[in-house]
Amino acid sequence: MQRMTKRVRCQSDKANKEDNYMSLPDACKLLFLTESTIRYHIIRKRFKAFKSGGKWYLKKDDVETFKKWSA
């Protein structure tokens, strides 16, 4: 199996992050919650999230569902 170069993998990851994920500060503004509260929900597996470059990224669908559920 041929391995992709690092540059190509990073570009495809960046495209996926922009399309399917939002940053933690953006989620805070949308949900009117603090960062520590959202990190608590990440630990409790209520959001699918990952950390990249020291920043948290949350799945947009989970954030929208949580917003509807909490309203």
Overview of the molecule:
The structure is a single chain. The chain is of the alpha+beta class and 71 residues long. The chain has one domain (6-70): Arc Repressor Mutant, subunit A, CATH 1.10.10. Helix content is 61%, strand content 17%. The protein contains four helices and three strands; from the N terminus they run αβααββα. It has helices spanning 6-20, 24-31, 35-43, 60-70; strands spanning 21-23, 49-52, 55-59. Strands 1-3-2 form a three-stranded antiparallel β-sheet. A hairpin with a 2-residue loop joins strand 2 and strand 3. The chain is globular and about 30 Å long. The termini are far apart. 11% of the residues are buried. The mean pLDDT is 81.
Helices, strands, pairings?
Layout (H helix, E strand, L loop, with lengths): L5 H15 E3 H8 L3 H9 L5 E4 L2 E5 H11 L1
Antiparallel strand pairs: 1-3, 2-3
Number of domains: 1
The CATH topology annotation reads as Arc Repressor Mutant, subunit A
Beta-strand segment tally = 3
Shape: globular
| Low-pLDDT runs | none
CA distance, first residue to last residue:
48 Å
Assess the beta-strand content as a share of residues: 15-25%
Structural class assignment: alpha+beta
Order of helices and strands: HEHHEEH
For the largest beta-sheet, the strand count, sense and barrel status come to: 3 strands, antiparallel
Query: Please, how many helices?
Result: 4
Mean pLDDT: 81
